């Protein structure tokens, strides 16, 4: 699961990891613990890193047109564990809205037409 190279791989890994976390949260909700005990249990719970399997969590981030996956020990150090080599960064392509693309293309077309007309006039003189 830690062989993340594409956007699809990122979201599959994140989904699988989130399922584990959500399963734990749901079992905690169904338990007979008090709310404070549930809160304490959740804050102290460490899930296995998807690469090294150490109980340090895995950090998934989607910000600034980048998808990032890191070993949890690299984000929040856990005593007794060093971060593994899990350090994936996927740059997302630039997105342009179709409206802006049409404006840009029309402007380029206008500039090319003007250049053609100027070249014709220069040749005639």
Description:
There is one protein chain. The chain has 125 residues and is of the alpha+beta class. The N and C termini lie far apart (70 Å). The model has no long low-confidence stretch (mean pLDDT 92). It has helices at residues 7-30, 35-44, 72-75, 98-124; strands at 58-63, 66-71, 87-91. It is built from four helices and three strands; from the N terminus they run H-H-E-E-H-E-H. The protein has two domains: 7-92, no CATH class; 95-125. A hairpin with a 2-residue loop joins strand 1 (58-63) and strand 2 (66-71). A three-stranded antiparallel β-sheet has the order 1-2-3.
Summarize the structure.
This protein has 125 residues and is α+β, with helices and mostly antiparallel strands. Helices cover 52% and strands 14% of the residues.
Keywords:
3 strands, single chain, 4 helices, 125 residues, alpha+beta
List the topology elements.
Elements lengths: L6 H24 L4 H10 L13 E6 L2 E6 H4 L11 E5 L6 H27 L1
Antiparallel strand pairs: 1-2, 2-3
Helix content: 40-55%
Overall geometry comes to elongated
- Show unreliable segments: none
Distance between the termini: 70 Å
The helix-strand sequence is HHEEHEH
> What Rg, in angstroms, do the CA atoms define?
26 Å
Main sheet, how many strands, which sense, barrel?
3 strands, antiparallel
Total beta strands = 3
Lateral arrangement of strands in the main beta sheet: 1-2-3
Strand content: 5-15%
Number of helices: 4
The assigned structural class equals: alpha+beta
Mean pLDDT: 92
Total number of domains: 2
């Amino acid at each position: 699961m830690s062989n993340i190279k594409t956007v699809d791989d990122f979201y599959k890994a994140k989904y699988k990891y989130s399922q584990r976390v959500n399963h734990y949260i749901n079992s905690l909700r169904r338990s007979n613990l008090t709310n404070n005990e549930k809160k304490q249990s959740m804050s102290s719970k460490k899930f296995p890193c998807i690469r090294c399997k150490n109980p340090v969590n895995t950090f998934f981030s989607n910000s600034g047109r980048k998808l990032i996956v890191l070993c949890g020990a690299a984000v929040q150090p856990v005593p007794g564990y060093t971060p593994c080599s899990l350090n994936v960064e996927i740059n997302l392509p630039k997105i342009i809205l179709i409206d802006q693309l049409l404006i840009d293309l029309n402007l380029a077309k206008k500039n090319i037409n003007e250049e053609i007309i100027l070249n014709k006039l220069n040749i005639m003189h």
